[in-house]
Amino acid sequence: MRQIRSLSLRLKLTLGYALIFSLSVLLGAAGVYLSASSTLQHSLDTTLSETASVAQASIEHQQGRYVFASGLKPSGDVYVDLLDQRGTRLAFAGTGVDDLPLPPTQGLRTAKARRYLTQQVQGGLFLRVSRSSDILSEVTEMLGRILAIGSLGMILLACAAGYFLADRALRPMDAVARLASRITESGNYTQRVPAVVGTDEMAVLTNTVNRLLDHMAGTIEREQSFARIAAHELRTPLTAIKGRLDLALERPRDNATYQKTLEVMRSRVYALVSLSEGLLELASTDAPLKLQRVELGSVVLDVVERLEEAFKARGKHLELDVGENWVSAELPGLQHLVQNLVENALKHGGGQVVVQVAPGLLAVHDGGMGPDPGEWERLLRPFERGSTAHTVPGNGLGLALVQSLARRWHAVITPSWSEKGFTVELHWPP
User: Fold this and answer.
1) Can you say where in the cell this protein is located (predicted)?
2) Which of 34, 41, 79, 397 is least enclosed, having the fewest CB within 10 Å?
3) Cα–Cα nearest to 72, from 89, 88, 90, 92
4) Looking at domain 288-427, which CATH architecture does it have?
């Protein structure tokens, strides 16, 4: 069993195919042999029966003894004799002498390389017809040899054909294995398996592997780009904190200076914490998808309740047009998405913000000018901020997180500019 497990898949498939084919061929050959033997035997028995019928009609009683009519001339090696109940030959016809020392018993039998048919006739006598079975034995023996040699040849041919077919079928798998090995050694995820034409299992396998590699390459590229940008964004506030600390420790200072320095560093630390949380939220969009039915209206009400004081502090008015709306999303991500959109409206919009929830729709209208339309695509990338937003605190991750979550849920984010202000809409598929 261990040796079989160590064989290659090609050999296992070939051996399995050869075993099944061999059994089929051997069973077929045995069937042909038995059928042919039975047919030849039946033909011989039919010949004996026909000869016995002719011989029975040719029995004559002349001068106190039984003889066969002169017209009875059995052909070839057929021998006919008439026996009494003790087996004594009373008359015979045919070439040669058949001296089978057997009592007359009705029916068919084979003995001494001859086939015998014995029938009881009038007067309690027995008519026995025989013929040599050597030809039958030779024919069946030759047929057996032909079937054996032919079966062996077919089995060997089947093994070769099975290995060829297994090799041809497994080539795409070999290509996948070689590609995986090359990718492991080189780390280059741009390589692909040669496409297989058709719709069979191997074509599905190669196409699936290539799609997987496309997804992996895109994910790795995004992660590498994200890591580079994150490192750059984190370096700036850390450098500022380090400079503040070095400056504060350069020489003794009074308590007021130390207090001011600590307050500045605390604000920078808060910015770092906010940036880290945004990075974690953005990184979580690559986690396995766990969609569920979420009531969007209740999520919006919870988020707005948390931001109510911030709106009052800025002197802005928040208006809600919320109805019941169930969407396919992830609850934590949906909370972050709504909060980012409402916070952006709070920071960059006008004096009145309207949040609308309708079937398959979330819309946030901020009453402001919004970003430059030409900058919108750029703002959907991490750490990108509008040209007029540098005076407002932020890290440029809000819209990137919204875009990633929308794409993850198969939703579409759409901006619009009008005389009444800027609006961001999020549409879920029906």
Assistant:
1) Membrane
2) 34
3) 92
4) 2-Layer Sandwich (3.30)
Both structure tokens of 404: 């990633």
Q: What angle do CA 352, 359, 422 make, to 5 degrees?
A: 30
Q: What are the C-alpha distances in Å from 408 to residues 35, 147, 170, 289, 413?
A: 69, 66, 36, 8, 12
Distance separating alpha carbons of residues 388 and 254, to the nearest angstrom: 38
**412: pLDDT confidence band, cut at 50, 70 and 90?**
very high
Q: Does domain 201-282 have CATH number 2.40.10?
A: no
164 band by pLDDT with thresholds 50, 70 and 90: confident
Report which secondary-structure segment, H or E, holds 361. Answer: strand 361-365
Please report the sign of the dihedral spanned by the C-alpha atoms of residue 333, residue 335, residue 339, residue 341.
positive
| pTM, two decimal places | 0.49
Residue 329 has which token pair? 């999303």
Inter-residue contact 314 to 348 (CB < 8 Å)? no
Q: Is 122 exposed, middle or buried (0-12, 13-18, 19+ CB in 10 A)?
A: exposed
Q: Would you say domain 2-137 falls under CATH 3.30.590?
A: no
Which burial class, exposed, middle or buried, applies to 116 when counting CB atoms under 10 A from its CB (0-12, 13-18, 19+)?
buried
Which tokens belong to 258?
């130390």
